[in-house]
Amino acid sequence: MSVPAHIASVRAITSGTAKGTEGPSDVIHLPNPRPLSGHDSVVPALAESLVRKTPQLVEELIELASGRNIEHIQQLPACDIRRSLREHVLGFLRFLAQKPFPGDDPLAVPMAWGHHRAQEGVALESMLRVHRLATQLLWEKLFDEARARSPEVLQRLLDESAPVWDVLDSYSLALAEGYRSAELTARREDAARRDALFDALVEGRGVEPAVAAEARVTLGLPTRGRFAVVAVDADAGGSSRTLCAALPARSVQTVWRLRSDREIGVVELGRTPLPRLVEWLSTVPGQRMGVSGEVDSLADIATAYHFAETALQTLRYGTTGVAAFDDRLLEAFVVTSPNVAQRLAQRALGRLLDCEPEERDVLLATLEAWFRCGCSAARAAQRLHCHRNTVLNRLRRVESLTGNSLDDDRHQLACQMALVAVHTLPLTSPPQTATENV
């Protein structure tokens, strides 16, 4: 991009009209240099006399900078350095001479060059060192020019020095602000590139060699490794910053992205066992999150994302915790086919679901305890702190309400899956499937 184009783009930034600016916080405001006092000021005439000596001043400035081993003076093309210094010096002198370029903001040139140098990778300190040398040289030249005229002119220059230094300071500030505007733009573009690459991975494009190669460079993720995906309910207060604090940086590598109401994290596990990751995440209170099973390549990140999202949906609304996909496969079956799961529960449990809540909950708890105790009424009674006959009576009540015998293996399996559905889904209006939410 040419320097005039840079000036135009920086003007857009300073006015807040640049494409992609996000609001008033991005607009750069610079103080206007203090105007020269009075029409009889000696500064304009002194500055105008130096305008004719601009080429000589530029060469002296280059020699001064080269003698101090300023990095970018030695590395950038000489013609580029001369052009930028000439525009700086000329713009400064024209402003003092009260003859700026028609329609030009006197600070547009230093701001544009600050923006340009930042894009070239020049260090800000290197630029400011050259500016300090320019400040020193121009003041000395104004001083010499005044002294050559008369002691009176020299004294008046000293009396009027404040506006001169104001302009020099404003040039320095404009350089820095132009530089920082370029850094801000670069950070924004880098964040957008990272987000787009992250989205490509969770949308299944990790199978493309170009995407995988860019993920290695931009996100720092190896093409193959041990990966897991974490899906966090942002509406429940989930925050990647909070979660990162719970994960030892030396043990795992994480890349996070906020998508809609989810904080999504891709975790490169290294040598960390997946259960240890779940354990670390579980130490963060008040979170709702799902953790996928382990996959071994970027090509499988989309699958892991689906698993993490499914695991998160196995947590009933209003509850918190960490749901690991591999530990909740039955619940995963339920949330991925909620209509089927609800139909199964209604068919298997029948009129039991229509009982008063107190009786319904007691019967469901008894049935679940009986299954967990290997269909032993005695062991279930111990678990429930009641008599064995109480358990048997409740089970007969279950059979009468469901219309099926608990001796039927297929009915037992249906009841077990129905219990999973009851604990996972509301048994009223069915929610969307996990596939629809992903």
UniProtKB/TrEMBL annotation:
Organism superkingdom: Bacteria
Gene3D superfamilies (alphabetical): PucR C-terminal helix-turn-helix domain (1.10.10.2840)
Domain CdaR GGDEF-like: 208-313
PucR C-terminal helix-turn-helix domain boundaries: 363-420
Region (Disordered): 14-34
RsbT co-antagonist protein RsbRD N-terminal domain sequence ranges: 71-194
Family: Belongs to the CdaR family.
Protein name: Helix-turn-helix domain-containing protein
Organism of origin: Streptantibioticus rubrisoli
